[in-house]
Amino acid sequence: MIRIDNLSKSFGPKIILNQVTYHFPEKERIALVGANGQGKTTLLNIISGLETSYGGQVIQPKAMRLAVLAQTPKSIPEPTLLEECMSGRQEVYAAKKQMATILEKMATDFQEKDYNLYEKLLCEFENSDGYQLEGTAEKILMGLGFLPAQLTQSPMILSGGWRMRLELAKTLISKPDFLILDEPTNHLDLPSIEWLEQYLQNFPGTLLFVSHDRAFLNTVSTITLYLKNGTLQPFRGNFEAFLAQKEQLQKTEDNTLKRVLKKQAHMQRFVDRFRAKASKVGQVNSRKKAIDKLQEVIKGLPVEESEAKIHIPSLPFTNSGKDVFSLKNLSIGYTNPLLKSITYTVQRGQRIAIVGTNGIGKSTLLKTLYGMIPPLAGSVIQGQNVQIGFYTQNAADDMPKQQTVFEAVRNLNPQLSEQMLRALLGMMLFKGPDLAKLVSVLSGGERSRLAICGLLAQTPNCLLLDEPTNHLDLVSAQILANMLQEYKGTVIFVSHDRDFIEQAATQILEIDGQGKICY
């Protein structure tokens, strides 16, 4: 299977990969984890051949079939969803199309060479299980949430999120030996995530994937690779097993560091005491050399920074009235209603998770509450002194690219003290030199963290959050969950992250397939 030898990659002074070597074992489901900006996507791009500027080498068998989840959909897809999905098996689908063309030609102009080519293609098609291709495509598409009536529609009418689901379907149907998935659950709802978990558990090849969905990591992975500060460290087991092993390893390293520091201090006291005594020159010099060696040992110990000791500042907002939103016989949508006859009162301090399949009206409900789109029927009555902060799915992309991290947040509320601004940024892991970075050089996950900081800097007492954990690493998602638990205002959010929902929500509103809300 694939082997990487002495991989090195830097962006300016930042080392992403520092002579990394690893042999990916066959038939394992390998999760690549690490904080945003540590280089997970860069490593995937190097292995998949999308990134060619690096040191070291990637070695893979010539006959190995590699499949990579594309990050953007094909600009000119096949005519229907079903055909576009089948095109993921490129050779088989190409043979199917060519056979159809030859049959059509032979119907009016039979030639022996065409017949021989058709027979050859048919043999290859049958040997590649071509007759199962359409049925397999249907199962995968419907497992990922597409309806039977959609399969004959054009992919061009789909939203960006649904186009990415189609790309995932194409990747899964390709039957690779080595499968690379970068954030495969980002555009999926809960039923589709659960289907994908089951599918990948039965995947017969080697899987390498990045995900920030803790439940997904625990269900799917058999090996966890931890990428930090340019090094790659493997752990056997799923994410929970990785955390337990990492904690034990850190305790061992901490104890080793304490022993080395104690020994170094003991030798230093001897040197300080006898450095001026001629009879002790030899012993002093010997201990100085030993201290230098111990210093090298200390430098080599991978001491972890504590990610748990994050200060969560108290936002200086004013309280809203007791009733934040009163929904009366509300119907929402654009032309046709997605949700009908909703009567519900949101009260101050509630943290409400809205769940349900994609396209059912969750984001539309948030936009209606915010006032971006009017109700189709009924009313939304906003309570007294409600100050809303809305985190949209595009919030990270809307951050000003040519401002620094600090400027981008400060300009959203110039009245907020520098101490509070720094506390907010520090809470989302922006510290020291990070504050002077341009927004344009941040990763997608870092921009998402910054957008959350910018939202909180405006001191709203009601947060509307649409998929806030998309692109956040596990540490950042945990920090956000902790912050929401301490937040004294009202929160209404849409999420498919089961762990985040469990931690952050006090109530769950589930939208069913009939356009009704289950309270």
Folded structure, characterized:
With 519 residues, the chain is of the alpha/beta class. The chain is 40% helix and 21% strand. The protein has a 6-stranded mixed sheet with strand order 5-6-7-3-8-9, with helices on both faces. Strand 17 and strand 18 (517-518) form a beta hairpin. The chain is flat. 36% of the residues are buried.
Number of helices: 16
Share of residues in strands: 15-25%
Mean pLDDT over the full residue set? 89
Secondary structure class reads alpha/beta
Radius of gyration: 28 Å
Widest sheet: strand order?
A: 5-6-7-3-8-9
Number of β-strand runs:
18
Short description:
The protein is an alpha/beta fold and 519 residues long. It has helices spanning 40-48, 81-86, 90-106, 112-127, 133-143, 160-173, 190-201, 214-220, 239-274, 281-300, 362-370, 405-410, 418-427, 444-457, 474-486, 498-504; strands at 3-11, 14-23, 29-33, 55-59, 66-68, 178-182, 206-210, 223-228, 231-236, 323-333, 337-347, 351-355, 377-382, 388-391, 462-466, 490-494, 507-511, 517-518.
Q: Could you list some keywords that capture this structure?
A:
519 residues, alpha/beta, 6-stranded mixed sheet, 16 helices
Question: How would the blueprint of this fold be written?
Answer:
Elements: E1 3-11, E2 14-23, E3 29-33, H1 40-48, E4 55-59, E5 66-68, H2 81-86, H3 90-106, H4 112-127, H5 133-143, H6 160-173, E6 178-182, H7 190-201, E7 206-210, H8 214-220, E8 223-228, E9 231-236, H9 239-274, H10 281-300, E10 323-333, E11 337-347, E12 351-355, H11 362-370, E13 377-382, E14 388-391, H12 405-410, H13 418-427, H14 444-457, E15 462-466, H15 474-486, E16 490-494, H16 498-504, E17 507-511, E18 517-518
Parallel strand pairs: 3-7, 3-8, 5-6, 6-7, 12-16, 12-17, 14-15, 15-16
Antiparallel strand pairs: 1-2, 1-4, 8-9, 10-11, 10-13, 17-18
Helix pairs in contact: 3-4, 5-6, 9-10, 13-14, 15-16
